[in-house]
């Protein structure tokens, strides 16, 4: 891996203040795992507290609104996230695309709003099972990337892509390592086309049922720059086992 592996925990709609103990434990362990960039995306309500409790790891959000502010009851702007202590936000997660009918253009607008507010961005893409079975996985992901990625000067340095096959999320199922390699390669080719030389350093995370037991083999796949971890990020014990696997990979 050319750049530090990036292991991000997406807590989704899990966590009250009691979970801050897990964040503290993850942060403490990060001190001896400096070859890995570690981050957590807790729910909005815990961003500020997590930032206060954790000094080494990154802290980010799971979504943001496209507007800087205004009459959008229940929404959160990127500037508010930054003010709360976030350094990045995830956008375009398949659960947002499904639950809130977010389209590629919405995801792109959110990514651009986040960048404008000074946040880094993790843009998520991934095919459904029906799309994979129809042999369309790479085509679908290429279309999502073309429509969802922010463009422009200097964007690449603030950008991470997460490939998360929808059918692998929370199911315990993962693509074969060959399928992960093929998809990450095709995403890399596209990033190189879109961003030129800077595209080579954009990390492409794999997400979908990453666990302590499969992290090493997935992280060893060419062009896998880290992992976006859901369920296994909810306890320090299982999340740190994945971070340790990434540190071992970084040593080789
Ligand atoms: P799981 O690790 O629970 O499959 O979730 C993956 C995910 O959606 C991370 O964003």
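Sequence proposed for the structure above (252 residues):
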């Amino acid at each position: 891996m050319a750049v530090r592996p990036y292991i991000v925990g997406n807590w989704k709609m899990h966590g009250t203040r009691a979970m801050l103990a897990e964040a503290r434990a993850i942060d403490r362990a990060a001190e001896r795992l400096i070859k890995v960039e570690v981050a957590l995306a807790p729910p909005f309500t815990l961003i500020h507290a997590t930032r206060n409790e954790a000094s080494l790891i990154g802290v980010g959000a799971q979504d943001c609104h496209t507007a800087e502010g205004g009459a959008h009851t229940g929404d959160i702007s990127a500037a508010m996230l930054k003010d709360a202590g976030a350094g990045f936000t995830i956008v375009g997660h398949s659960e947002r695309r499904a639950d809130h009918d977010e389209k590629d253009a919405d995801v792109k607008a959110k990514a651009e709003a986040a960048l404008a507010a000074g946040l880094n961005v993790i843009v998520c893409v991934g095919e459904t099972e029906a799309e994979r079975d129809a042999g369309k996985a790479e085509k679908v992901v290429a279309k999502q990337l073309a429509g969802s990625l922010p463009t422009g000067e200097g964007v690449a340095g603030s950008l991470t892509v997460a490939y998360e096959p929808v059918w692998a999320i929370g199911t315990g199922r993962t693509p074969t390592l060959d399928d992960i390699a093929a998809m990450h390669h095709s995403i890399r080719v596209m990033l190189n086309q879109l961003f030129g030389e800077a595209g080579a350093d954009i990390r492409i995370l794999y997400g979908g049922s990453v666990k302590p037991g499969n992290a090493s083999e997935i992280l060893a796949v060419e062009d896998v720059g880290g992992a976006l971890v859901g369920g296994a990020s909810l306890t320090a014990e299982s999340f740190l086992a994945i971070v340790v696997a990434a540190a071992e990979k970084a040593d080789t």
